[in-house]
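Lab notebook, design round three. We kept the backbone fixed and only want residue identities now. Task for the bench partner: fill in a sequence for the structure below.
Input structure tokens:
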């Protein structure tokens, strides 16, 4: 029985790094590549990091019901394509979704069996420093992301699990342990 793991939290909290390390520890875990209307950052590739869609194509696909979830975040749209998720689940593989908090709440409604993990920064100030030091966004975009993050952090109690990303090794170990525990449970109940 495949499991779906939703990893969410504010922008800059380290979701991508934690998921990369999680997949190194549990190679059978598949990543569902999200779609976005934002432009690729240096080194990002279409279909590997994101499905990069223009606004019109994204809107058309929302209208067609192609998304499991979708949300607007800091002026850009993000979403999980149903076909992307279904492809992995049809193989019987466990899947991880790296999505925005708004999208994670939609998944809770459509896939209540999904395991939801909220990644928390050690402090709001640390989150600000991470976003600014990335150097990938203009100061106005960083400010918008921080404003959104305040509201997202207030919602963390709604999630099944919370992991504080204050130490990368410890946070990775906690996430890996959590996923292994749920996969073992799914395996036991399937047999």
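Proposed sequence:
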């Amino acid at each position: 029985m495949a499991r779906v793991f939703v990893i969410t939290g504010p922008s800059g909290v380290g979701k991508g790094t934690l998921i990369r390390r999680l997949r190194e520890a549990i190679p059978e875990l598949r990543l569902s590549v999200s779609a976005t209307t934002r432009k690729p950052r240096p080194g990002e590739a279409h279909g590997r990091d994101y499905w990069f869609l223009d606004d019109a194509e994204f809107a058309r696909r929302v209208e067609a019901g192609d998304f499991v979830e979708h949300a607007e975040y800091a002026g850009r749209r993000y979403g999980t394509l149903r076909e992307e998720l279904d492809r992995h689940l049809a193989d019987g593989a466990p899947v991880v979704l790296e999505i925005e908090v708004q999208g994670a709440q939609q998944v809770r409604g459509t896939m209540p069996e999904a395991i939801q993990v909220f990644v928390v920064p050690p402090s709001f100030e640390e989150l600000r420093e991470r976003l600014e030091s990335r150097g990938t966004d203009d100061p106005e975009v960083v400010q918008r992301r921080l404003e959104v993050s305040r509201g997202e952090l207030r919602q963390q109690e709604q999630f099944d699990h919370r992991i504080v990303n204050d130490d990368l090794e410890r946070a990775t170990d906690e996430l890996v342990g959590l996923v292994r525990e749920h996969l073992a449970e799914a395996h036991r109940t399937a047999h």
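Keep this in mind before ordering anything: The radius of gyration is 16 Å.
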